[in-house]
Amino acid sequence: MQKNILNRWTLIILSLTIAILLLINDYRYYTNNSENNNFFIDSNIINLGLDLRGGSEYLLSPKIDKWLLENNKGNNKARDDLASAITGVKRQKEIFKLANLNTYLKRFGKYNTSIDDLFPGETIQTLQESIKDALSSNKDIIRRRIDTRGVVEPSVRVNGDRISVEIPGDQSVQDIENLITTSAALDFNQVIYAPPNFPNEIQIWQQQIQYVISNIPEISKNNLVEKIDISNITGNDFIYIKKENVQEFKDFIDLRKHNVIFDTRKLGYFKPDNRYNELFKIALNDTSFQFNEGDLWIGILDPKKPDVSGENVSNASVQSDGSIKDDYTISLEFDGIGSSKWGDYTGKNIGKQVAITLDSEVLTYPVIQSRIDGASQITGFDNYQKASNVTIALNNGKFNLPLQIDSEHKTGPELGEKMISLGLIAFFIGIGCVIIFMIIYYRVSGLIASSALLINVLLMCSILSLLGATLTLPGIAGFILTVGIAVDANVIIFERIKEELRKGTPPLSSIEAGYDRAFITILDANVTTLLTAFILYSFGTGPIKGFAITLGAGILCSMFTAIYVTRTIFGTLYYSKFPKKLSI
């Protein structure tokens, strides 16, 4: 038996030694504030969650309806039904769910369309797999984009059917929302009608916009465009999109892309400038008139020419144009196919305008002056970060699945420090109260349980460090909870031992019987709690995962310390020359 006790102590001491070695790296990291403190075989540390160190978290969800519109292969009737289904769901203020697509098509459609009409040979399950793959691809693209911006220790992961993006600390990433949501669909389109430079050319441009709008009466019916009466000068209204209607207008056009009018036309969106301000002031007799930031003008582009897109761009870089105003340009280099197509197109279309669009918004629309081989430029950026974000998005590929920001949560570093202090205070008070209670109630046995409890905390920390886990405020709560769970196991054991002692069983036999009889009860309780932790980790996000990790690690460690370590200490005492009276 003494040999068995020695083997037990060997395992315990080995476990404690490894735990301490694993935590040395954490100690050096947080005391020296250095990123290169690898020690032993361990390169991981316990990371602090956003609620403890501050930072920003964005939850991105896929635009399933837009993905269906862009990728279906149905005829016009099937596409009409799909558009009606999407519109109907929105009007009912329901969340569009792919699993209910057939139900939506039957409820809102006219032509008895099925999934097979839109996606031949596909099922709901295969479509869900395609979306899942696209979401995973988007996650990798977002990670590359953020890494390119030099963000330290970002976290980008798929949580269920959403992507979580965490930017820790007080790192300032300008236009981060655009960087993580822009699809980066770059297109080159020949201009058919765009905002002219001279007011006397406004009439024909606006007549063409009016023609498109009149062919989709729902646009005017839903008041998605704004009309300014300048007919006293140009002979017609001026049509544009107000900022608050931009997204709804774009979504509506996406629903109607199969309309025959868009076979030879594509809408482009232009940022307003002040070129017509004087005209509007005279026409409206309003000297203060100006367009608001976020309003958009509408243009008409050729959807097929010059057949060059962002997929043909091999590299994009930001350059200063060298002027006093510090305007920036984006230099684009084409691959072999793109270079050949671009050269042929520009050579045959000198004097025409070509619009370069990103997600349908026109970045620039220059006049072709001469044949251009191998490269192009996007001009007009007055802000380096905006130009940089566009190049980063282009260089790292476009999304296969449109995304939108579902929620945004920001925590300042000062609040994080306060949370750490409060969490540690709660932890030490909690563990102190447990230790005091155990010593008072169970005397020496309580002291043994308390020592095992401290070992449990040490082992928990080492496991979290080895995993490189993220500790959150709920994670600290998980720590405190596992302290109670660990002590609970000892309470069950000690009460079993006391039952044996009351029967007159000798101390050593009482200890053996107490541990043997309590083991199944403790195992059953811990396994169910461990399953709960696994479920929380699988379906939770952020802080919930932090709680699940600490809870799971605590359960495993408490089984080792509450049963194995304390039993070893009892065995050491009662196989030694110490008094055999059991203090419990």
List the helices and strands and how they pair.
Elements: H1 2-32, E1 47-48, H2 50-53, E2 55-62, H3 64-71, H4 76-91, H5 101-108, H6 115-118, H7 124-148, E3 155-159, E4 162-168, H8 176-181, E5 186-193, H9 202-214, H10 217-221, E6 226-229, H11 231-234, E7 237-241, H12 246-255, E8 266-270, H13 277-284, E9 296-301, E10 308-309, E11 313-320, E12 328-334, H14 336-348, E13 354-358, E14 361-364, E15 375-381, H15 384-395, E16 403-411, H16 413-467, E17 470-471, H17 473-502, H18 507-539, H19 543-574
Parallel strand pairs: 1-17
Antiparallel strand pairs: 2-4, 2-16, 3-4, 5-9, 5-10, 5-13, 6-7, 7-9, 8-9, 11-12, 12-15, 13-14
Helix pairs in contact: 1-16, 1-19, 4-5, 16-17, 16-19, 17-18, 17-19, 18-19
Written overview of the protein:
- The chain has about 575 residues and is an alpha+beta fold.
- The protein folds into 3 domains: about 1-55 and about 410-575, Multidrug efflux transporter AcrB transmembrane domain (Multidrug efflux transporter AcrB transmembrane fold); about 55-180 and about 405-410, no CATH class; about 185-390, no CATH class.
- It contains 19 helices and 17 strands.
- The relative contact order is 0.12.
